[in-house]
Write a structure and sequence with these properties.
Layout lengths: L1 E4 L5 E4 L1 H33 L3 H50 L4 H29 L4 H8 L2 H18 L4 H6 L2 H13 L7 H4 L5 H18 L13 H19 L2 H25 L2 H5 L9 H18 L1 H28 L5 H14 L2 H12 L4 H36 L5 H15 L1 H15 L1 H6 L10
Antiparallel strand pairs: 1-2
Helix pairs in contact: 1-3, 1-5, 1-7, 2-3, 2-7, 2-9, 2-17, 3-4, 3-17, 4-14, 4-16, 5-13, 9-10, 10-11, 11-16, 11-17, 11-19, 13-15, 14-15, 14-16, 14-19, 16-17, 17-18
Length: 473
Amino acid sequence: MVASTLESGSTLAINRNRLFLLSCLSLIVTAMTFGIRAGILSQLSDEFALTDGQLGWVNGMAFLGFPLAMVLFGFLYNKLGPRLIMILAFAGHILGLVLTIFAGGFLGLLISTFFIGFANGSVEAACNPLVADLYKDEKTKWLNRFHVWFPGGIVIGAAISYFMTNAGIGWQAQIAIMLIPTAIYGFMVFTTVFPELPVVEKAVKLDSFNIALMTAVFGLLILVGTPNGIIGTLPGGILLPLLAAAALTYVLVLRWTKSHRDAVLALVLMVIMSLTATSELGTQQWVDRILGAQLGGIPGQPMIVLGMVTGIMAIGRFFAGPLIHAFNPLGVLLMSALLTTLGLFLMSTASGAMVYVSAVVFAFGVCYFWPTMIGVTAQYVPRSGALGMSLVGAAGMFALTIWNPIIGGWIDSARKTAESSGLEGAEVDVIAGQAALSKLVMFPMVLIGFFLVLFLLRKMIVSSAGDMEVAHD
């Protein structure tokens, strides 16, 4: 037990272990939605006659709802507190899962998946700053341990999908089973004492200009992340609204932190996070479509690969502390980019048993991306607080909103090219999967350059922090 002293002078007993357990359980539910959805894509495609491009839009709704919730609740965290945000996350999970079960087609899947994504983002928006506050002296270490349960939850979801699919159990039942852990974490939310935020943090001024900035960013993200005819009429397509969103975010962080240095670094970290998340989740979410044929077309085999990858990630994150101490968070991220590049390159040419070997290399590569990026934000831009962590996490998920339909389009295009050249059956699927992987490898290749520069400038980044306390855990 730890004591949380309120500004009013009263003391409230807070069970830090229970709060951490609650955070981890809610993240397991979040991850299970990714793992099980990855396992049922082919079933959804068959039942509703969806193309891979349409599946990309369905996937994209989860990655749109996620950043919208993170941006909104990162902005309002100091006003609402983690408990209320977690209640909203619980309600979103229940609503999204039930609507998915009763979805009747493409539109129904879009709407229900958006609610699930919004709930997932609410969990991250509440729990990242909560864990960082519970373990102020070892933020990156405990954020990594918290994020053990994202790959851990994907392992659970992948295993459930594998066994239920092989048992002939349909996708609706696979979605329904997630209601059980959702109910458990919901019960814990309503029966756990959360720490009160200090009065000084609650007093953050949400003036009309900041609210207008947030509203504009929100609208631009919806414009870019939903299928509509407006984007095609704009010069440069999505580039103009993306640049506008970035500019408005810069102004928002500047007003929040009163520091140009913080605003610049936060924006850079958001760009980097968009690449790390696409490298990791852009591959994992499409594992059934891009690796199924390479694994011999045996039902459920891609879920074994996904479970193996995420299992390695979970173990690696649990023991992240010593590695981060030894190599610095930026050094760990540079190593991760190198291994991810190698793993995706090997995967793009592999077949049979070599798929598993390349997947192991990939797993060690993407293992530390997400939690270490959140930890770097908490350490090097601490004045941005919950907003900074949420914006960086939101950028990672929103990138998948953009890239998921594109990845689906890559698969569709490569399949048509293969068929026009006279190939048939499994050969077409192999070519399509390898074509997508050969494009995905470009993301970690760019990251190598980013992390190399940041690693070389790490002392300058710390010294420019001025009066900020930067932890080296």
